[in-house]
Amino acid sequence: MRGDIKLIMKKIIVGNWKMNPETLEEAQDIAKEIKKIASKLKKIETVICPPSIYISNLKSKISNLPVDEAGLKLGAQDVSAEFDTGSYTGEISAGMLKNIGVKYVIIGHSERRAMGETDEIINKKIKTALKAGLKVIFCAGEKERDDEEHFLDFIKKEIEGGLHGVEKKFFRNIIIVYEPVWAISSGKKFRPDNPDSVFKITIFIKKTLMPLVENGALRSIPILYGGSVTALTAREFLEKGGIQGLLVGGKSLIPKEFSQILEIADRL
Questions:
Q1: Which end of the chain is more exposed for a tag (fewer CB within 10 A), N or C?
Q2: Among this protein's residues, is 150 annotated catalytic?
Q3: Which of 5-19, 175-189, 244-258: highest mean pLDDT?
Q4: What CA–CA distance (Å, rounded) separates 131 from 166?
């Protein structure tokens, strides 16, 4: 059964830098080191999502080549729910991101949800980003596990709410990230997840997506895992979790460790 859900496409490894690093110089140094490895790897899609304030500089100054031509794609950590420019203080539109070279955007991350983003807001952001031509990295996952497995209903609600009314033609630009909040190392109740558990949730997510997508399109929707992945755990999750890639948090700011994760993914 595990072989049935493997997709014949590049693995996707995403680095979410969150509100780091503190200076542009540090951001440039991290990106340059990651690019050295990413440019040599052909079997994976490497994406880094720095704070928006650094994106333009990283796009133009890492090398003479645009970042995406050097084996590295740029993503954003958030986007406005409003499509048109206007009186939205502090917001960044999907069109603005697209025009400075961003290819991907993370939407629905647990840390944004904790700030008050609802399924309705996330749904609007997803539609806006897709309309602008961005690829959406859509995060969903439970805060806690329970023995009765009610947490599955929670995951289903987040996925259905976020993707409600999305046109089927846009699903080719959607990536799902399973992000169990309890398995994120910065959380108060942190405990590590395991590949067998992730595999079961991957199957569940596929079943949840079935009514939403066209026949045959389901296999083209990558499912990533984002739960405090390290170089020590990446291989097992990629081999046994039924996933197409990883969303990496803190370790993506450590070029040596993130590069090890990239190399592991490329060899599989």
A1: N
A2: no
A3: 244-258
A4: 10
Q: Which of 45, 142, 158, 179 is catalytic?
A: 179
Total residues found in the chain within this entry: 268
What angle do the packed helices 119-131 and 151-162 form, to 10 degrees? 40
Are the CB atoms for 179 and 224 separated by under 8 Å?
A: no
* Interatomic CA distance for residues 11 and 9, integer angstroms: 6
Q: From its phi and psi, is residue 63 left (phi > 0), alpha (psi between -120 and 50) or beta?
A: beta
Is the pLDDT at 83 greater than 50? The verdict is yes
Question: How far, in Å, CA of 65 to CA of 239, rounded?
Answer: 33
How many helices and strands, by DSSP H and E, does the chain display?
A: 9, 8
Cα–Cα distances (Å) from 78 to 66, 184, 214, 223, in that order, read 22, 19, 27, 19
The string of pLDDT tens digits covering residues 128-157 is 999 999 999 999 999 999 888 899 999 999
**Residue 257 annotated to the active site:** no
Q: How many CA atoms within 13 Å lie on the side-chain side of 211?
A: 8
d(CA 238, CA 243): 6
Helix, strand, coil percentages for the chain (3-state, nearest 5): 45, 15, 40
Give me the phi and psi of 178, to 5 degrees please. -85, 115
Cβ–Cβ < 8 Å for 125, 81: yes
Which of the residues 45, 91, 109, 117 is marked catalytic? 109
Q: Determine the 3-state secondary structure of 108 from DSSP.
A: coil
What DSSP string runs through 25-69? HHHHHHHHHHHHHHTT-SSEEEEEE--HHHHHHHHHHSSSS-GGG
> pLDDT tens digit string along 28-38?
999 999 999 99
CA-nearest of 1, 10, 2 to 240 is: 2
